[in-house]
Each structure stands twice: as C-alpha cells, then as structure tokens.
Specification:
Layout (H helix, E strand, L loop, with lengths): L9 E5 L2 H5 L7 E6 L5 H7 L25 H11 E11 L1 H13 L3 E9 L13 E9 L12 E3 L14 H10 L5 E4 L6 H8 L3 E6 L2 H12 L7 E2 L1
Parallel strand pairs: 1-8, 1-9, 2-3, 2-7, 4-6, 7-8
Antiparallel strand pairs: 3-5, 4-5
Helix pairs in contact: 3-4, 5-6
Length: 236
C-alpha cells in the first residue's frame, strides 16, 4: 500500500491485523493506538465477568476472534516498522497481559515508559476486588515530547455499558492523539473494534487508518465515521 499523495481522512480495511500492517509502508504512521482482543478476555468470559462476550461456544465469540499471546512478537515488530521515528505506541490491555506484552514490545525495539490507567469510574463484574480500570501501555520509538506535560497518568472516563463489546469512550483515544500527534497526521489502529479511535482521530483533525477482522466492526466504524466524513469505504 503506497502512501497517498493526498490521503483521505480515513481508510478502513477488513482483515487480519498483522497481515494488514505488513502492507503499510515503513515509517508511515504517526501514532499507533490499539486494543487487541487479548487472550485473557476468554478467561473473563468463561467465568462470567465479561457478560457481553458470553456468546462464545469455544475460543472466540460472535463479535471478534481472540488474539493469542504468541502473536504479540509479530504485532510489535510490524508496529515498530510502520511507525515513524520519534513516535508513540499505546496498547490497551489488562494487568495479566501487561506482563506478557511489555518484554515482547521491548524486544522489538520499543522503549517502555509506564502504564497509564483508564479509570472507568464504575466497577465492573468480578470476584476478587472488582475491576474499574484498564491499562494503556505507553511505548516510544526514538524520543518524542508529549504535547502537554500536565496530563496525569490516570485518565478518567465512564465505561460504556450499552454498545459494542469493549467499546472505548472517544475521550480516551482523543487524549492520546492530542498528546502524540499534530493536525493532519496519521493515527493507526489495527484492532479498531467499534472505531472509537477513528472517531477521535477525525474529530481532532487527523487521518485515520484502521483495520479489523470482524465485519460487525467494519460496519459499525463505517457508520460512525460517515457521520463525520461522507463516503468512507471498506477495502480488503
């Protein structure tokens, strides 16, 4: 995929995240923000702590396929390649996945700064200290200063209770986008889900490149983005 001379405000692709990343030019993306359906989600689903994912009959569900931990090295390698130098990478995950993902991302070349905390304001389901937060691992390729050094490492936004599974409020990716990019730059999300990062990117005057393997995801993202930019199409 060659970088367009005058890129549209959004490009959506249906397919495997890593396969899609491999089609992107090296050093073509200004920030990568993503939330893979990490493996430990299946554990939460199996014991009933993630009720909106309980349609699964085996190792996946009606909405998306689980991304296995063993594929993280490929994801981090391709993410590092497509990112420009002196850029940031944000990975949403839970505490269990953090200990698996962090060393793999560092092996790919990323510098790990810290986990950010998304405080969802209200507790979710669970058994031992019911969770009301999610982590966002903050990595860097090269060295880049944040736009606003006064932003705390705890980002507060109420969880979305009636929507696409694992849907993020747009205020969370919006903060990350404003911290790590300038107007007109490219925001990439290879596991875009319901397209919250895309909505935030377009709303903040950035270009969005997104991918998801799920047709439900593509249609939901297309619908949301078409409210902001007419005639968003899907490839792949």
């Amino acid at each position: 995929m060659a970088t367009p001379t005058n890129p549209p405000q959004a490009i959506l692709n249906q397919g495997d995240a890593i396969t899609w990343l491999r089609t992107l030019p090296s050093s073509s993306v200004d920030v990568l923000i993503t939330d893979p359906p990490y493996e430990s989600l299946e554990k939460h689903r199996a014991v009933g702590t993630t009720t909106r994912l309980k349609h699964s009959k085996s190792s996946s569900n009606d909405w998306f396929s689980i991304f296995p931990n063993k594929r993280f090295p490929e994801l981090f390698s391709e993410s590092y390649r497509v990112l420009k130098n002196n850029r940031h990478f944000y990975l949403f995950c839970d505490a269990e996945t953090m200990f698996i993902a962090k060393p793999m991302a560092e092996s790919a070349g990323f510098k790990f700064w810290k986990p950010l905390v998304w405080d969802k304001k209200y507790i979710g389901m669970g058994y031992h200290y019911r969770s009301r937060y999610e982590l966002i691992l903050f990595f860097e390729k090269g060295k880049r200063r944040l736009s606003n050094l006064g932003i705390p490492d705890i980002l507060e936004a109420p969880r979305i209770t009636k929507g696409y599974p694992t849907e993020k409020p747009t205020s969370i990716p919006s903060t990350l986008i404003k911290q790590s990019t300038a107007s007109g730059e490219i925001v990439c999300d290879p596991f875009m889900g319901s397209g919250s990062t895309g909505v935030a990117a377009i709303s903040e005057g950035r270009v969005f490149w997104g991918c998801d393997i799920s047709l439900n995801s593509l249609l939901e993202t297309q619908k949301r983005l078409n409210l902001l930019v007419p005639s968003i199409t899907i490839s792949g």
